[in-house]
Each structure stands twice: as C-alpha cells, then as structure tokens.
Amino acid sequence: MTTSVRLGAEALSRCHLAARDEGLAPALTVLGSLVVPGLLPSGPGGHAVVPQEVAASADRVWLDGVVVARSALDESTVDAVDLPGGAVVLLRGLGTRSGEVGPEMYGNGVLVPRLREAAAETDPATSDQRSAWALGLVWLRLGLSEALRETCMRYLNGRRTGSTTLLQQQMVKSTVADGLIEHLEVRAVLTGVDAGRLPAVLVSHLHARITAADRWLVNLLGASGYLAGGPGQVAHLSELLAEAYVPAPTDDAGIADDAGSADDSGRTAEAGGDAGRAGDARRVAGLADDAGHAAGRAGDAGRAGGAGRVGEAGPPGGGWAAGGGW
Fold it and tell me: Among 71, 51, 53, 52, which residue's Cα sits nearest to residue 61?
C-alpha cells in the first residue's frame, strides 16, 4: 500500500527549475521521482511521455492512479525524440490489458482513447498522487515555457534589421511581453500552493495559458523554431504532455466559482492582483518602450476566465489524447 504524502509547493517547484535549466527529460525524471518513483506514469487515455530511461526500465505502470504490471498491458512506441537534456519516448495503448478486446480505431489508424471516469477515492494516497502529478506538470511546463521565452529574446536580440534588432520592433516586443505576462500570471497562482489545493478546472486553465504563450513565442523564431530537437519541438511535446495527462474540462464557465471553493481560495483569488503587478514585466524583460501595452495586458489578469485570449490555444485534451494527433 502506498503511503499518502501531500507534496508541498517547494518540492514541486523543483520540476520548474529542472525544466527551465536542464530540459524536458530531466524535469520529468524529477517529477517522477517525487510522485511515482519507479513507475511509468500514464494518463487517463493510456498515453505517456517519459524519459528514455524510464521507458526502458520501468516494469510497472501508474495508470492515472492505478498501478499495474507493465507486462499485462499492450503498448506501442510512437516515437523517441532527442532533445537537449536527454531523449523522451512517446507511448500509447497503455490502458489496454492483454486478453481484452483491442482498442477501437479511427479510420486513419489513430487510437480512440479509452477514457475512464474517476472512481471514488478510497485510498488517500491515490488522490494525493494525482494532485501532485497534476500540479507538478504545470510547474514543469511553466519552466519549459520560460526557457523558450529566454531563447526567443537571445535570438531576436542577435538579429538586426536596419539600425536596430528584431527585439526592438514594436510588434515583436508586444508578443514577448504577452508571453511574459502569461508566465507571471501562472506563477502568481502557483506560488505557495501545495498539491490538492487548486481545483482541476483551474489547473486545466493554467495549462491552456502556457500553451497559448508557447505558440506566440515559437512564431517569433521563424523557421528556426521548427527544427528537429529545437525549441519548437520542445514546446510541441510540452503541449502533448497536457493532452496526455490533463482531462479536458467539462465546464469552463465555472473557473472562478470553482476556484473560490478551494481551501485557499483567498490566496487563489488574490492571484489576479499579484499578477496585476506584472506591469513590472517591462523592467524584468527590458521592454520599457512597450510599457503601456504590457500594463494593459496585466490589467486583464484579474479575469479568471481569460477565454478570448487563451481560447486561441484550446483546452488540453483536444489533439492527440482525443485521437487527432500522433
């Protein structure tokens, strides 16, 4: 029987540092060692994104809270991707047990995900693991997205147009500022929050904001952002992480109300006010000329929905995990 341990914000934020400074594979290794040591973590649809070492050595699978022997499952390897920091492996079909009827397929040969409804929690450890994994993934993706922003700024500051750099172009500065504001807003919500303290719909919302920021920033890199093993591929795999492990929300309209029902709803509700100080983002990023725009974006932080802007990215679970990708 697994011991119930509720991980705190300080422990989970280690995933953020590893992702930002080392890469996706090391960050997944840190998260796995904290939440599901020795196991291969799989999402509710039977999909997994794991470091190559875990894919090669794990003999048990954590199926969204249920631990089973890996030998009892049918699985297929979709791809192995070499990235800075180490390779990651994409797996699917982990929700199908040997001897069961095979998975239903779409006409294009893509698996129809076998999504399971969450069972009543009888073991506190299962609930704690799920919560810790969900929150750790947000921290991890935030670190990857911040690293992408720093890559963009270095790239743009090194390319000149006329007598100035691309980074000093108004539209470019505006997009970088947008990404920075998203990062500050997400971090304001996460800071000091322990696992299990944020409602699932808010966690899904944070993933959508990170995805939106990644898509804006990758566009700034032009063709270089889409090279194999480059920052665009890291951003793509980050988005697939959300699709694999984060169930699509069933009701986006209740984000603010659900957030208010959390135990620390006061602190969560104040996140918008904390993010409102993101007008200082212009100082952090050196985007002084774009102060008015950045401040205006920060003022929108108090809207818990953010539906118009975040809607560009769409909610997690709409691509690969819904049978439309990979």
Answer: 71
